[in-house]
Amino acid sequence: MAIGIGLDVGGTKVLGCAVTDAGEVVAEARLASPATKEALVDVLCACVEAVLADLGSPTSTVVGVGAGLPGLVDRAGVLHETANIHDVAGLDLPASLRPRLEGLLGSSAGPLVLVVDNDATCAAAGEHAFGAGQGVTDSITVTLGTGIGGGIVTAGSIVHGERNFAAEVGHMVVDPSGPRCGCGRRGCWERFASGTGLAYLARRAVLEGRAPGLAEAAGGIEALRAEQVVAAASAGDPEAAAVVGEYADYLALGLGNLAELLDPGRIILGGGLAAAGSVLFPPAIARYEATCRRGSGPRQVPVVTASLGERAGAIGAAVLALGVLG
Ligand SMILES: [Zn+2]
After folding, report:
1. pLDDT at residue 91 greater than cutoff 60
2. If you measure from the C-alpha of residue 209 to the centroid of ligand 1, how many angstroms do you get, rounded to a whole number?
3. Residue ranges covered by each domain of the chain
4. For the CA atoms of 307, 173, 88, 114, what is the dihedral angle to 10 degrees?
5. Class of domain 135-306
6. pLDDT tens-digit profile of 175-201?
7. Which of the four CATH numbers 3.40.640.10, 3.40.190.10, 3.40.50.300, 3.30.420.40 does domain 3-125+311-322 have?
């Protein structure tokens, strides 16, 4: 039995999982996220150490370590940009990690496999191998959180792209006259269909006089967050339900584009916003089925909710290190 250790660097925590090649999580650890690039290598190594302590068995079964980070990571594992940590461009994470990890893990199992990749790519690998993508050859995982990430598996292999920057689906433009995105353009999908996007749609509804009660309940328009919209919608508030309806339209728009582009066996919705999936996803999926060119018959690409929860990225980073996917 081979074990891979996967690390998922989030905005608040680094989650580490030891995962067998059958997909079983056999150890876990979590540490606070680093705020600087100098701390990044230390925290990743400390997380591996904590996972090994939780694992308790000989390290010789650990064949590889994978790490997923939010941002652009090239094929060599060199960071180009990472959310929450400034000034990472050019950081060769594998070069910094390898000697320290080989010190922790020993060399009895042969050369350590070390993979550093985008966090949504990792989540896609995890869901495809051991989650909601099991049983199909092609899947797209869309991670909905503060922004939107994506990962694509075709014919059982991760699609990396020429530069390893494939599947940045959050920056597909869905409205050229929409609000400005962090990438510098207007109307990217994540400006509408992420958690931040849901809050934007709610604030827009308030400004247009369509949701005065939402702003009042939140204590002002600036305090209005996605969680409040979700809570109000699930309590039956009609203003919130209308905002969720708009959100559903935008989520469905991007999903339809992805279905047309790649014809996957499934589109999997994950990320932090999936916790509110029972409120947000049914209207979005209904809208998607109603507007997608393929109708709701056998040509339709099913949209499903992710099944690995917050562990998807860490499990997927381990999957990449284990070489479970091509
Ligand atoms: Zn953008």
Report:
1. yes
2. 27
3. 3-125+311-322, 135-306
4. 40
5. alpha beta
6. 999 999 999 999 999 999 999 999 999
7. 3.30.420.40
What is the DSSP secondary-structure string of 87-133?
Answer: S-TT-BHHHHHHHHHHHHH-STTSSPEEEEEEHHHHHHHHHHHHSTT
Distance of alpha carbon 148 from alpha carbon 262, whole angstroms: 18
- From 96, 80, 79, 14, select the one nearest 49 (Cα to Cα): 14
Q: 42: how many CB neighbours lie within 10 A of its CB? A: 14
Residues with CB under 5 A from ligand 1 (ion): 171, 181, 183, 188
The C-alpha atoms of residue 84 and residue 134 are separated, in whole angstroms, by 32
- Measured in Å, residue 175 CA sits from the centre of ligand 1 at 11
Question: Tokens 């562990």 correspond to what residue?
Answer: 311
Residue 293 pLDDT > 90: no
CA–centroid distance, 170 to ligand 1, in Å, is 7
Rounded distance from Cα 176 to ligand 1 centre (Å): 11
The SS3 call for residue 210 is coil
Residue from 188, 152, 126, 171 nearest 320 by CA = 126
What region does 43 belong to: left with phi over 0, alpha with psi -120 to 50, or beta? Answer: alpha
